[in-house]
Amino acid sequence: MNGKAPTTEDRFRALAHGDFESVDVSPELRDGAFGGSGLDVETCQLVRIAALVASDAPHVSWLRHLEAADEQEISLEKILGTVIAVAPVVGSAKIVSACAKIVRAAALGEEFGVLAEG
Questions:
Q1: Rounded to an integer, what distance in angstroms lies between the CA atom of residue 33 and that of residue 29?
Q2: 62-108: per-residue pLDDT in tens?
Q3: Could you tell me where the DSSP H helices lie in the chain?
Q4: How would DSSP label each residue in 25-36?
Q5: pTM (predicted TM-score)
Q6: What dihedral angle (degrees, nearest 10) is formed by the CA atoms of 31, 37, 43, 47?
Q7: Around 12, how many Cα atoms within 13 Å sit in the side-chain half-sphere?
Q8: Is the dihedral of CA 71, 102, 64, 34 positive or negative?
């Protein structure tokens, strides 16, 4: 590194790639703290999946959350069930978008070795 402080543009780029550490985002957000929610880990992850659908989240967010779900051994069937469950609330366009992003993120995850194949 050149010793210069990162510019605002550098910080935006880091966040766009999911790099929360380099921009000093709170550890609770970065590490996915959920203790105050009263939910178990699996339910919390599935709620986050639902939020990704509702917000039409970008691919990098999907990759990050699919990786976390994979680490918790949450099945793709449960993730699909969650996507289907929010369909009446978010509408078909967001469901199609989410499913396309899940497929793309899963492919990237397998390619980079962060998600188990299959």
A1: 6
A2: 988 998 899 999 998 999 999 999 999 999 999 999 999 999 888 87
A3: 8-16, 27-31, 41-55, 59-71, 76-90, 92-111
A4: --HHHHHT--GG
A5: 0.69
A6: -80
A7: 3
A8: negative
